[in-house]
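Renewal narrative, Specific Aim 1. Our central claim is that a sequence can be written position by position from structural information alone. The example that follows is taken directly from our test logs and has not been curated for this report. It begins with the structure tokens describing the chain, in the order in which they were read.
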């Protein structure tokens, strides 16, 4: 399991310097660490967080948006009609609720559909694993810089330490 402070530091070492999003239990450790560092601005909705990240990018920041995958549905229109069209990149850190058919019933449909959904709308994505974390983060940084569009990193339960182990 990756410690939350190590994960946050790796993002900051990549240059990510603006963090916003909507709380989620899988991302709770990451959000707590960002709050301890004074680096997290909470949003009410995921589409609002994506818009805040676009504004931060226009102000010279490298933004990340943290959300549960159900929030991907909420933010999809903003990602496509703002970020993709106007080349407003951000790192999407998305908890993969419902992965493999395991979770509460309300997470199963999006958990199954999420990779195909992002493929359909041509948003690059990768799943973080403990074994490949360095390579995954390097890929995120490289893709963000080359493509200048949102790039998603799926975080399965138990890969990054949460608030409650």
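The sequence written for that structure reads:
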């Amino acid at each position: 399991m990756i410690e939350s402070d190590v994960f946050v530091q790796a993002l900051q070492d990549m240059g990510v310097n603006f963090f916003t999003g909507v709380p989620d239990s899988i991302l709770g450790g990451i959000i707590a660490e960002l709050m301890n560092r004074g680096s997290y601005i909470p949003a009410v909705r995921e589409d609002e967080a994506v818009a805040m990240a676009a504004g931060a990018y226009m102000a010279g920041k490298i933004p990340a948006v943290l959300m549960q995958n159900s929030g991907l549905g909420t933010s999809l229109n903003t990602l496509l009609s703002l970020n993709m069209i106007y080349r407003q990149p951000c790192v999407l850190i998305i908890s993969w609720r419902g992965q493999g058919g395991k979770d509460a019933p309300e997470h199963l449909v999006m958990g199954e559909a999420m990779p195909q959904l992002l493929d359909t709308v041509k948003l690059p994505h990768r799943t973080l694993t403990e074994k490949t974390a360095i390579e995954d983060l390097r890929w995120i940084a490289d893709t963000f810089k080359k493509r200048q569009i949102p790039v998603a990193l799926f975080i399965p339960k138990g890969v990054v330490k949460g608030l409650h182990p």
